[in-house]
Each structure stands twice: as structure tokens, then as C-alpha cells.
Amino acid sequence: MHNASLAFVRLHLFPKRCASIQKFNSIWKYHSRFFTSSTTEDEYLKKMRNIGIAAHIDSGKTTVTERLLFYTGKISEMHEVKGKDKVGATMDSMDLERQRGITIQSAATHVSWKGHPINIIDTPGHVDFTVEVERSLRVLDGAILVLCAVGGVQSQTFTVNRQIQRYRVPCIAFINKLDRLGSNPHRCLTNLRGKLGHHAAYLQIPIGLESDCAGLVDLIRRKAIYFEGSNGESIIEKDIPDNLKEVSEEKRKELIGCVSDVDDELAEIFLMDEEPTEDQINAAIRRATVARKFTPVLMGTALKNKGVQTLLDSVVKYLPNPSEVDNFALDNKRQNGDKKDRILMSSERTKENSAVGLAFKLEQSAFGQLTYMRMYQGCLEKGDTIFNIRTGRKARVPRLVRMHSNKMEDVDRVYAGDICALFGVDCASGDTFVKDKTLELSMESIHVPDPVVSMSLKVEGRDDAGKLSKALNRFTKEDPTFTTQWDQEARELIVSGMGELHLEVYAQRIASEYKLPVVLGKPTVAFRETFTDSIKFDYTHKRQSGGSGQFGRVIGYIEPLEQENYTKIEFRDDTKGTNLPRQYIPAVKKGMVEDASEVGPLIGAKIRGYRVVVQDGAHHLVDSSEVAFRLAGQGALKQAIESSNLVVLEPVMKVEITIPSEFEQNATASILKRKGDIYDTDNLGELATLIANVPLNDMFGYATELRSLTEGKGEYSMEYSHYAPCRPEVEEKLIKEYAEANEAKAPKKKSGKKK
């Protein structure tokens, strides 16, 4: 009997012996790989899958993962997300996750399905924890994009889709919650194609919707599938019901035609009017999915235990193994112009290749810092010495583990393609580790969005033991989107993050994990300042104070960037000749991009959204230096600021509001009152959805207002969209407040006559 089947039988038929069985399983060595001893590492690699589950909040990701764990025999019984039975879902291991009923941290596990080892990462759906999705998708080879059959493509679905595209991750779509009132898989497919741009088609259609959801039709195999038993564990295949035979054939032809558009082999069969075999269709779907040209669409209802086993079948059929995905490292030694050479990593599971791994997530545990790592090349063994490319420090690996939520399984070694965790390694998220210190390779980085909301944080009572400092050091290290700074003017600590919920969660964690109650103050918004037109600069920095002095001259212009780049600063070197020597260009860049741009003249906000173009300059053989040209750069930017008209920018959020239809008018009025721009509406029968762009500064307190307007039935989500110029009255108010604050802190002159 296969090991996965053995695990299922042991855990489900003998639940009372679960503890002893788990202890028995723990002694199985990692090299067994769920297979017979004859299985080679090459065969294991081809069967392996590294997948993530991502979606908009409340689409059912964690429920889907719970069912995946159950059907693969990893857990003996299923629990719900909200933790009504005081247990909660396996992957939501934090008490705070079970209290709130949401996923806050990504969690990793490993299962086996029909001889295929699968590493799974369950990710949060709320936009405030989007960095967890970023770093998970960075190290995965495939993804399941879960869509709610009622909500369809929602605001966070766009964000997740952008992340999937950014890291070029092949994916399959799973339309969940077919049992819910108002479920409409057809609208989900239309949105998947129209709004997200996926070349997608059904692989299944439902046998009934809402309370009548009885099963699924497998279009490729032309079979009706029913999930029977108390937990849907018994799969029964029957003939397709008569009322669905015609539509099944139509959707099957649509599927074959859709795949034929992106696969030449199937297209040839299709054009010759031949009937492709099941194997030919599956092979074509796999080729197109791995090449990211096609997205298979499956469906079911995880809560009612339907469709999850067929989802697992599709994961092993259509998503790639690690050898089918090209992963590159940047060679720090070799550089082609401004770009470093990209080196293709070898996915062979052998000790012959030098080990390369990426630390993608940090977590504090009872045993110290736990570092999650994806191996991209070679082999890493317990006791090995590894080198951090960023810091140059070496570290010994005292312990290697595989994760199952918050539980650990010790292993002796890991190979390319594995996801593991190490203890005792001090690093930051995104660091690359190698075994050969002569290799200066860095894996391509993880995208980290900038924080958009700031709040003051104060301790209630005394902090004699320095608990706050310990907590903040830990959390800022684990989460790069959570930052802190001391406001010297206001004499208070400022914490910044991706939203109010993000900061509230950390405040609660400080209180619960460190027994230190804290209070969050009024939120502040990350305003920016920018140029409105092009402006030339010609600045000379000259200082003489005996001996060698300082001299540097820079000439060029500054121009504003497009709205989508309002958070960036670009620098271009257009100099020719030797008036401004090449070695001083980085110093000029530091002065104009890093130093003088941190405090703007209008409200003291960072200056962003501009391009610096340096065209010429002058230097002195003795007096010129990097310091002189850095100061010249600072002076040039200040000169440009004085000659230009700047404006204040504010972050604009994409807000999606779902309310009962009878409250649509109230919700519309509330958004317009907050100066929002409603650009899309969707009526889902009993529910209505409004999508709008609203300035973040006008969104504080909206949760309370929406609950009041909709009798507690409305909900909303928001994510950062872009920066845009403030309304004139808002800008005037901000400038006035900044001027008054500066005036208040200025030292007062003493009055009276001198003696």
C-alpha cells in the first residue's frame, strides 16, 4: 500500500492512536521521500510540487488547505477557520488568527498525494499582510488562485494576480463556495478573462449550484463526480446527467479550442477535425499551464467537502516541478553595464553542485530565530557552514527542519527544490546563502511595498524590562513592511505599516506575547511632495578653509515622472567628456536622490516622483572629492526646489465595498462624502459591490461608519492604488499646519534692553 494511503488509513481509522502513530512517523528518515527505496532523486524531483494558495480575503483559502491536509492524510480531522470548536484550522496556529478568523502569517506544510510530495504555503488574503504573499510566491513554482463563486474577482485578487505575474508563477484557478447563495461560476470565468487577462477555460462544470450543489462534471473524462461520505472522502463516478450532457460537450469543445490557441500540438489535431485523446488534452494543458499561456479552471465547495481531491489531481497533473522552472541568481562578480549577469541555477538533486538558498521568511520561536529557506541548487546538510552573501558572515547549521504549520520535523539534509527551515542563523528576509564563499551569487530580490499608514505607539504604564524594544526589533526584522522611527519633534514613537489592521495586530501581539499593553494614536498618512514641471540646475559647491578645499559643479535638469511612478526617483547620467569624472557620479546621485530628498519644503514630506538628469559639471584636480560632489548634489536639488513649484501628493486607495442591495445608495453617498471616485459597480442580486478610488486621508473611521449605515451587514477592503496630488484645500491645510509646527518649535527671542 502507498505511504500516503497508509497515513490516511492510520490517522482516520485509528484516531485514538494518532499520537503514537505520529511519533512512529517522525522516525521515518527524510530520504524515504514518501517512496520506495528504489526511487531516485531525479524521479523525486519530477514528482515534487511547490505550491501556494492565494486569494482575496474570505475566499476560503485556509479552508481549502485544511481539506488538502485531511485528504492527503496529514491530519485526522478537519476544523473550521473561526475556531468555533476551540481548535481552529491547522494552518492558523496563532491565537490571534483564530480569534479574528483571518490568516495573518503565511504557513508552510508538506503532504503527499498519489506519490507526489507537495510543499504547500497558505497565505493571508488581507491586503495589510501582502508581504507574506510576496515572499511566498517568490519561492514557489506554482499557485492555486482561489476565487469566491459569489464575489468573483475582488480587489485583493488583482493584487495577488499582479504578484503571480511579477514572479512568473504558473497557476490554476479554483472557484470555491459553489454552495453559497448567489454563486455564479460563469461570472468568475468572465472576470478571470476580462479583468485579470487570463487565457482560461473550465475543466469542470457544477452539477447544481447553491443548496443544490451535488457534484461536478469532469469535461475531459466525460464523467460526473460525486463526493460522498461524512467528509466527502468517497469519490463516486457516474454518467453525466441528461440535462447537462449538451452543455458539457459545448464546454469541452470550448476547452479544447482554448488550449489549441496556445499549444501547437493540440492545434494540429484540432484543425484536422480529429478527436484528441484524454492524454493528449492533459499533456497540452500541462504544457500551456507551465508556459503560463493557459489557466485551468476547477471548482467546488471546500466547506461542503466537494472538489478538493480533483484539485489535488490537477496540481500534480498541470503545475510544474522545480526542474521545469528557470531560477536565476545574480553574479556579483560579473556585470554587464549597470546590470549583473544572471546565472541559471541547476535543479539537480545532487551534492555535486554548490548549495545556494534564499531566506524568504523569519519567525521567532521558542528555540530562537527560525529562518525559512528555499533551496535553489545543491545540497545542504545539518552541521554545514554557510555564508551570507549580503553580510559576508558565516554560520553553522545546527538544525534543519521541515514545517507543518507550527510543528517541526527534523531532517538531515535538503536538496534543490526543497523548502525547509533552519535554526541559529542570523539574517534578514531576502538574504542569499551559499556553502562556497567564493561564489558571490544573490537570488533575485523580493518586492517589498512601502508602508502607507503611520500611527503613534505608547506604552500603558512602565516598561522597565525593555520589552517594547525587544518586540519591535523582532517584528521589524520578521516583517519588512512594519517599520518604526522616533519623532524627535513630537517626542513619540511612530510605527508604520500597510494599514490600520496591520498596526492593530502588532499592537495586540505586543500585548499578548510580551505582556505589555500599548495604545495606538491617531493615524498619519505618508504624504509626498513632487515637482510639477521641468527645472534646470547649475550649482557649484566651493569651500576653502586652508589646505585642500572642496569643489564640485553639477549641471542638468529635473523633470516630473508619470503618476504611476510617483513613489520613485530616477537618476540618469548624460554627461560626456571628462568635465565631471565618472567616479563622482555616484556621489552626485547620493546627494540628489538620497540626502536632500528626505525633507520637502511644503510639509516636510519626502520628495518623490522625479527624474534627475546630469548633463555636465566641473571638477578641480586637488579640491574635488566624493564629499564635495555629494554636497554639490544636495545643493543642486535645493536650488531646483527653490526655483520650482512643488505639490503635495497623497496615497489613494482602491476600496471595494460589498453591501446588501438595499444599502447601496447609503454606501454610495458615504464614499462621495469622503471625496471618492466610484468607477465600477456590480449588482450580485441580493448583494451590491462598489469599487472606488478614495484618498487614504479620508478613509479613517470608515469601518465604523459602514457598519452603522448597513446595520452591520456591510464589509469593505482596501489596498494601495497610487499617489495623486491633494485637493487644494487639503494641501493648504497641511502647509499651514507644518508652518505652525515649525514656528512653535523655533526658539523664542528674548525681549528687553541690553544692560
Walk me through this protein's architecture.
This protein is α+β, with helices and mostly antiparallel strands. The chain folds into 5 domains: 28-320, Rossmann fold; 328-443, Elongation Factor Tu (Ef-tu), domain 3 (Beta Barrel), CATH 2.40.30; 453-514, 2-Layer Sandwich (Alpha-Beta Plaits), CATH 3.30.70; 529-644, Ribosomal Protein S5, domain 2 (2-Layer Sandwich), CATH 3.30.230.10; 650-732, 2-Layer Sandwich (Alpha-Beta Plaits). Strand 30 and strand 31 form a beta hairpin. The protein starts with a helix and ends in a 10-residue tail after the last helix. The model is unreliable at 1-38 (pLDDT under 50).
Short description:
Helices cover 29% and strands 32% of the residues.
Comma- or semicolon-separated keywords:
755 residues; alpha+beta; Rossmann fold; Elongation Factor Tu (Ef-tu), domain 3; Alpha-Beta Plaits; 5 domains; 8-stranded antiparallel beta sheet; 7-stranded mixed beta sheet; globular; disordered N terminus
Q: CATH superfamily of the largest domain, called what? A: P-loop containing nucleotide triphosphate hydrolases
The total tally of domains equals 5
Task: Report strand %.
Answer: 25-35%
CATH level 1 name of the largest domain: Alpha Beta
Count of β-strands: 38
**Architecture (CATH level 2) name of the largest domain:** 3-Layer(aba) Sandwich
Tally of alpha and pi helices = 19
The averaged pLDDT comes out at 84
Percent of residues in helices: 25-40%
Distance between the termini: 103 Å
Radius of gyration over all CA atoms, rounded: 29 Å
What's the overall geometry? globular
